[in-house]
From TrEMBL:
InterPro entries per record: DUF416, YP001051499.1-like_dom_sf
Protein name stated in the entry: DUF416 family protein
Length: 202
């Protein structure tokens, strides 16, 4: 994300807004892990899904307490090691876990920048995905970067993050109805930042 003013605007959000922005991005990354877990038979995607449900709820339910240490242990147990898998899907799946781990770590440390950096992590997942699609076609690093930036999947990621930022900016007070509606929209869309779609029967 290099759009002028994007990160400056992101950093001016209040803490709750920053959390909402990051949780929404983590939710979008979940299908990447779900597909990987299904194909590789590694990990339990329900661990990530349950944690995300708790994080969404925590935005409007002040009584909800999340045991961060316990959740971090669960995430670690479900973190894939890329060298153990001969498939590209391990990388976006790993990013999905790293995003949630980073988010919980930021809650512990209260370092707000670590939360906003999830924006960069999501974009990095997309950039790496695009590079696997087009990487061999370019002789120079600069040409490759330009092609990645111009690719429709990366453009879609940039547009979605900007749209999400605008929605969050317009709602400084996060009431339950707004948070639930945004979560439902993202979950129902069911498409990840790299276009992975998981159809759930529930």
């Amino acid at each position: 994300m290099t759009k002028v003013g994007f990160f400056k605007r992101l950093k001016t959000l209040n803490f709750q807004q920053k959390k909402l922005f990051a949780i929404a991005l983590c939710q979008r990354m979940l299908p990447n892990y779900q597909l990987f877990a299904e194909v590789s038979e590694f990990g339990n995607a329900a661990v990530l899904d349950t944690l995300l449900q708790l994080l969404w709820q925590s935005l409007y339910d002040n009584k909800l307490k999340i045991n961060i240490e316990a959740q971090l242990v669960k995430l670690e147990e479900n973190t894939p090691e890329p060298n153990d898998f001969d498939m590209y899907g391990v990388y976006p799946a790993l990013d999905a876990v790293v995003a949630l781990t980073s988010f919980l770590g930021a809650l512990q440390s209260k370092i707000e920048e670590d939360i906003t950096n999830i924006s960069k992590l999501s974009s990095s997942t997309v950039a790496n995905y695009v590079e696997t699609l087009i990487g061999d076609e370019f002789a120079s690093e600069e040409a490759l970067e330009d092609a990645i930036f111009a690719h429709p999947v990366m453009q879609q990621e940039r547009e979605l993050q900007m749209s999400l930022l605008e929605i969050v900016e317009d709602n400084p007070e996060l009431d339950a109805d707004f948070v639930k509606a945004l979560r439902k929209e993202i979950v129902m869309d069911g498409v990840s930042n790299i276009g992975v779609s998981i159809i759930e029967n529930d």
